[in-house]
Amino acid sequence: MAATTTTAYTLESAARVVHVEIFGSPPGAATIATSSIQWHSEFGDEKKYSDSGLGTTYGAHVSCSPPANSTAGFWSNTALSTGNDTIFTMVLISGDVIDVTLEMRLQNGEADTFGAITVASATVGIVYLLPLDYTENGASAKLIPISYTTLL
Questions:
Q1: How far apart are CA 32 and CA 109, in angstroms?
Q2: What pLDDT is recorded for position 136?
Q3: 138 Cβ contact list (under 8 Å, min separation 6)
Q4: pLDDT tens digits, 15-34
Q5: How confident is the model at residue 90 (pLDDT cuts 50, 70, 90)?
Q6: Strand, coil or helix: 72
Q7: Phi, psi angles (nearest 5°) of residue 72
Q8: Are 15 and 103 in contact (CB under 8 A)?
Q9: pTM for this structure?
Q10: What is the spatial distance between Cα 124 and Cα 58, in angstroms, rounded to a whole number?
Q11: d(CA 11, CA 68)
Q12: Which end of the chain is more exposed for a tag (fewer CB within 10 A), N or C?
C-alpha cells in the first residue's frame, strides 16, 4: 500500500501459493513450443508440469497446485523474505498469461521488517501489486500484473 507518492509497504505478513495456471499463446505455423512450471522443494522431489503448444491453433495449458512438501506449499513469512526467494521456476512462451492464486495473511501489528519499497507516482492509500518476478535489486521485471494496478 502506498504511504507516500514514492514509498509503499507490504500489507501481508505471510503468503503461500495455492495454484498456478499458464495459458500459452500458439507458437506459430509449423512450430512446437513448451510452457512449464517446476516446483522447488527442500524436503522431497521437485515436480515439473509442462504442456506444448502446436502451430497457430493450440496453445500450451498448464494447471497445477504445489505438490506436498514443496516450498510453495508452506506459508512463507514475507516480512523476513529477501524478496529473491525462488519457490517455482517457469519456462514460458512469449505472450503466455500466468494466473497465480495466493493465500495471504494480513499483518496484525507486526513490524514491517521487509521495509519500504520505492515506487513512482503512487496515490496514497491505494493498494498496488508487484510483478511476479520482482526483485529488490531493481532487475527489470517481465511478469507484470495485467488485471491489478502496479507502478513498476
A1: 51
A2: 64
A3: none
A4: 888 999 999 988 888 889 99
A5: very high
A6: helix
A7: -70, -25
A8: yes
A9: 0.78
A10: 43
A11: 27
A12: N
